[in-house]
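Input C-alpha cells:
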C-alpha cells in the first residue's frame, strides 16, 4: 500500500528540514517541481537586492567597489559555495555562466596534458557542454572529440593515452541518473587524463565532494536558488592553480589590476579565472540565498531528496502502473529528480501545470520533476503524483490547447 496523504503529513511533521520552507516565497496553490531548473525565490532576496541597489549603488556609488566588497565578490562568493561541493577556501571562483566556465576549464586543462589531443565528451550531456567543447576544440588547436554514451561502459575503451581530458555531468539532466564521481575520476586519472565535472544538477541537492577532480563547474540558479542567470562557479584543484591559465585573460584576473600594466600577468590562485566586471546585483541575490545554505546540513538534504523521489516513484507505481520510469530506482544512483518517458510528454506537462503542478519537458519524450528538499513537503509529492496520475488516466492532456509549444519547454 502506497503512503497516504495523512502519512505524508506525519512525515512532514518529523522532517528536520521543515523550517526551511518558511525561507521561501512560494506562490499559493502550486506544487513547484522545477527547482532543478530555476530554484524558488528566498524571502530575504528582494531586501538584499534592494539594499545593494538603493544603498550600495544609490548612496555610496563607486566607493562600494571597496566598501561593500564588490571587487572581491567572485572570491568571497566562491568561498561560500566551496563547502557545498566539498572544496576549501581559495578553490572556487563565482562568476560567468556555466557555459563560459566550461570553456575556461577546458582551455586551462588542455595545455596541462601536452601531447594528448583528445577530449572525451558525453552525447547525453546537457547540450551546452558538447557545444562548448566543439567551440574550444576548433578555437584552441587540433583537438579531437571522442563521444561516449551514458552509462559509462564505453569510457574505459575511449580512455587511450591520447586523451587529455574528460568532461561529464555528475547527474544526467534528462534521466536524473547520478555518477559515482570518485570512481569515474579515478578511472580517468589512471589513464593519465584530467577530469572536469559539471555539477549543475548536483549542487544543493547531493552531498557533493569534488575529491580528486581537476576542475569542476556548475550553476547556482537551480537548487541553490540564486535567481535567474545567477553567477556560475568554477573549481580549480589547488595542485593546478599555479600552472592553469585562463584564456579569457581579462583585467579582473590580473595580478595587479590597478597598476594598469600593458601586458597580462595572472593573479595568484583561483582569482586568475576572473575576466571582467562582475554582475553585482546578481551576486547580491545569490548571497542572500547562500545565507540560508550556511545553516543547511547536506546529509539531511540528500536523505530527504532520496525519500521524496522514492515516494513519488512508489506513488506512481501504484496510481498509474505502466508509466515508463527513466530514472534509476536505486536512490543511490539518482540525483534529486524523477523523469518518465511519455510519447505525449509535452501536453502532459502543460495539462499538469493547469492543475497546479509544475514540472517540465525535455526532448524527445522526457517529463521531469525536480525535488528541492528545502521547500518541498511530502504532501506536495503526494498531491503531485495524484494529479499526474489523474491527467494520465483521464487523458486530460488531449485538449488541443496543450499541444502548442511555448518557447521555453
Ligand atoms: C548540466 C548543465 N550544464 C549547463 C547548463 C546551462 O549552462 P548555462 O548556465 O551556461 O546556461 C545546464 C542547464 O540546465 C545544465 O543542466
Amino acid at each position: 500500500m502506497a503512503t497516504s496523504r495523512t502519512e505524508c503529513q506525519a512525515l512532514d511533521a518529523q522532517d528536520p528540514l521543515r523550517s526551511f520552507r518558511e525561507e521561501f516565497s512560494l506562490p499559493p496553490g502550486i506544487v513547484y517541481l522545477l527547482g532543478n531548473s530555476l530554484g524558488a525565490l528566498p524571502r530575504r532576496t528582494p531586501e538584499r537586492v534592494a539594499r545593494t541597489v538603493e544603498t550600495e549603488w544609490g548612496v555610496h556609488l563607486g566607493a562600494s567597489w571597496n566598501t561593500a566588497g564588490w571587487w572581491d565578490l567572485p572570491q568571497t562568493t566562491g568561498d561560500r559555495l566551496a563547502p557545498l561541493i566539498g572544496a576549501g577556501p581559495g578553490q572556487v571562483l563565482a562568476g560567468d555562466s556555466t557555459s563560459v566556465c566550461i570553456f575556461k576549464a577546458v582551455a586551462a586543462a588542455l595545455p596541462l596534458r601536452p601531447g594528448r589531443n583528445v577530449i572525451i565528451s558525453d552525447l547525453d550531456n546537457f547540450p551546452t557542454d558538447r557545444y562548448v567543447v566543439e567551440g574550444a576544440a576548433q578555437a584552441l588547436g587540433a583537438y579531437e572529440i571522442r563521444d561516449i554514451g551514458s552509462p559509462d561502459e564505453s569510457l574505459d575503451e575511449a580512455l587511450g593515452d591520447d586523451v587529455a581530458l574528460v568532461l561529464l555531468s555528475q547527474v544526467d539532466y534528462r534521466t536524473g541518473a547520478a555518477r559515482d564521481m570518485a570512481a569515474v575520476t579515478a578511472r580517468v586519472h589512471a589513464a593519465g587524463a584530467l577530469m572536469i565535472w559539471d555539477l549543475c544538477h548536483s549542487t544543493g541537492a547531493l552531498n557533493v565532494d569534488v575529491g580528486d577532480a581537476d576542475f569542476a563547474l556548475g550553476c547556482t540558479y537551480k537548487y541553490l536558488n540564486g535567481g535567474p542567470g545567477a553567477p556560475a562557479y568554477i573549481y580549480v584543484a589547488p595542485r593546478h592553480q599555479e600552472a592553469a591559465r585562463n584564456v579569457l585573460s581579462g583585467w579582473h584576473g590580473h595580478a595587479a589590476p590597478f597598476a594598469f600594466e600593458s601586458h597580462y600577468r595572472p593573479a595568484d590562485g583561483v582569482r586568475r579565472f576572473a575576466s571582467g566586471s562582475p554582475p553585482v546585483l546578481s551576486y547580491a541575490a545569490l548571497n542572500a540565498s547562500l545565507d540560508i545554505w550556511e545553516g543547511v546540513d547536506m546529509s539531511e538534504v540528500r536523505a530527504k531528496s532520496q525519500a521524496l523521489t522514492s515516494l513519488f516513484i512508489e506513488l506512481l507505481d501504484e496510481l498509474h502502473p505502466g508509466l515508463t520510469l527513466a530514472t534509476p530506482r536505486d536512490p543511490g544512483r539518482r540525483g534529486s529528480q524523477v523523469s518518465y518517458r511519455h510519447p505525449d510528454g509535452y501536453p502532459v506537462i502543460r495539462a499538469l501545470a493547469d492543475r497546479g503542478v509544475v514540472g517540465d519537458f525535455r526532448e524527445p519524450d522526457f517529463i521531469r520533476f525536480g525535488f528541492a528538499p528545502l521547500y518541498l513537503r511530502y504532501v506536495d509529492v503526494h498531491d503531485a503524483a495524484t494529479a499526474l496520475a489523474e491527467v494520465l488516466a483521464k487523458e486530460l492532456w488531449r485538449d488541443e490547447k496543450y499541444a502548442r509549444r511555448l518557447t521555453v519547454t
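The pocket of pyridoxal-5'-phosphate is lined by residues 97-99, 126, 128-129, 169, 173, 198, 200-201, 219, 232 (CB under 6 Å). The chain has a mean pLDDT of 96.
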